[in-house]
């Protein structure tokens, strides 16, 4: 009896051992639904001459998960799909993005590298409930942003920049995605207004180079660190930005914003501030203590081409690259600016096209070779600060006509 039992166990072990290669092969075999979805994706896209991304997509391969380029799998399911190889010398892919990609229901990342992919963004992408990264930038995608993307509960990063997308931004992208941290919609043809309140905990929001109108949201998340909406058609005041204590980069240039600059924007960690070519008015804020400690290496502030008036306060004296040109600033430049320019900590200081009456110089000091200083077309004759001027900053005329200076400087003429 014992011998029969031992023989039975031996037969069982031999049977298990005989089946093991097939079992392991099953573990490596991709889901049939995913394989069909990948076939549809390949049918909708093609390599541009010079690209060979799809050369490894052999559907007779026993293990696409390890053989297909751009594929990462877990438990027989595709979790990451990267279309294109991202090499700068590659021209990328052409065609359109198949709605069948939504059948890859375990996807956590969908990335399309730069190429010539056109057509709409499939609304079916909203079915990918596990998706955390959706990046389709630098292609020729057209049509609206599907509102269904607002249904992606785990979405962390959304990058649809540098396409040809039109229509408004679905409000749900700002209010319905609790996990969203990065949204990049730059360089499209988006229009309409932004919602009044942005409730998502966004860290990075880039909307530049579109056709957006209206005002800034009344409330933005206090978590935001990077905000760009330059080259749009937005208007209104900047008061809604006063509570953004984590903001380190702000670019609202080339819009129609008006009113004064909130003093809260001239503080760390906001060391990259671009507000040029708007209709901002009032003076440069003066009420900030210890302003010389606020800025340092790499800092840049551009307030040029606005309607700023009054005398220049010392608050921006430590900025490394500072553009205040083409405003209506008056009076003498504070000595703090002169000290930093001649000390070399300020690398660029543009004050041309204002109504400034003086730039106090220390006798015998020469301007460092690394510094660009422009003082032309003010209410003074500059002894320095015109060799570093950009082209067409005032032509050959170094000073304003005295008649203009008398009006803006309370009767004081050019010294």
From TrEMBL:
Belongs to the polygalacturonase-inhibiting protein family. Coiled coil: none annotated. Keywords: Cell wall, Leucine-rich repeat, Membrane, Repeat, Secreted, Signal, Transmembrane, Transmembrane helix. Residues 32-74 form the Leucine-rich repeat-containing N-terminal plant-type domain. It holds the Pfam family LRR_4. It is found in: Membrane; Secreted, Cell wall. Residues 1-18 form the signal peptide. One of its GO terms (cellular component) is membrane. This is Leucine-rich repeat-containing N-terminal plant-type domain-containing protein.
């Amino acid at each position: 009896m014992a011998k029969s039992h031992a023989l039975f166990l031996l037969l069982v072990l031999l049977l298990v051992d005989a089946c093991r290669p097939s079992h392991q092969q099953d573990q490596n075999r991709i889901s049939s639904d995913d394989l069909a979805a990948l076939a549809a994706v390949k049918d909708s896209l093609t390599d541009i001459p010079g690209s060979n991304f799809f050369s490894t997509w052999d559907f007779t391969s026993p293990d696409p998960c390890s053989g297909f380029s751009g594929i990462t799998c877990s438990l027989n399911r595709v979790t990451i799909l990267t279309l294109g190889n991202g090499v700068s010398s590659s021209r990328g892919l052409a065609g359109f993005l198949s709605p069948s990609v939504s059948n890859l229901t375990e996807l956590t990342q969908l990335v399309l590298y730069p190429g010539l992919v056109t057509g709409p963004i499939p609304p079916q992408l909203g079915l990918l409930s596990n998706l955390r990264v959706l990046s389709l930038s630098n292609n020729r995608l057209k049509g609206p942003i599907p509102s269904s993307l607002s249904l992606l509960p785990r979405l962390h990063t959304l990058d649809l920049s540098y396409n040809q997308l039109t229509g408004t931004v679905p409000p749900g992208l700002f209010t319905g995605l609790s996990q969203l941290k990065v949204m990049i919609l730059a360089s499209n043809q988006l229009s309409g207004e932004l919602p009044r309140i942005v409730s998502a905990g966004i860290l990075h929001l880039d909307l530049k180079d579109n056709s957006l109108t209206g005002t800034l949201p009344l409330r933005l998340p206090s978590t935001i660190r990077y905000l760009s909406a330059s080259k749009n058609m937005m208007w209104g005041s900047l008061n809604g930005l006063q509570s953004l204590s984590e903001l380190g980069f702000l670019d609202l240039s080339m819009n129609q914003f008006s009113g004064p600059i909130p003093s809260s924007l001239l503080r760390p960690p906001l060391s990259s501030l671009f507000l040029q070519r708007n209709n901002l008015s009032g003076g440069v804020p003066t009420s900030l203590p210890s302003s010389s400690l606020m800025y340092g290496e790499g800092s840049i502030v551009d307030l040029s081409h606005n309607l700023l008036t009054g005398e220049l306060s010392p608050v921006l004296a430590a900025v490394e690259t500072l553009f205040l040109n083409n405003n209506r600033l008056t009076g003498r430049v504070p000595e703090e600016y002169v000290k930093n320019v001649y000390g070399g900590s300020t690398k660029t200081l543009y004050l041309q096209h204002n109504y400034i009456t003086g730039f106090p110089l220390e006798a015998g000091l020469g301007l460092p070779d690394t510094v660009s200083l422009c003082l032309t077309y003010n209410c003074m004759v500059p002894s320095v600060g015109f060799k570093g001027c950009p082209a067409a900053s005032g032509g050959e005329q170094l000073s304003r006509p005295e008649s203009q200076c008398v009006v803006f400087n309370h009767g004081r003429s050019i010294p």
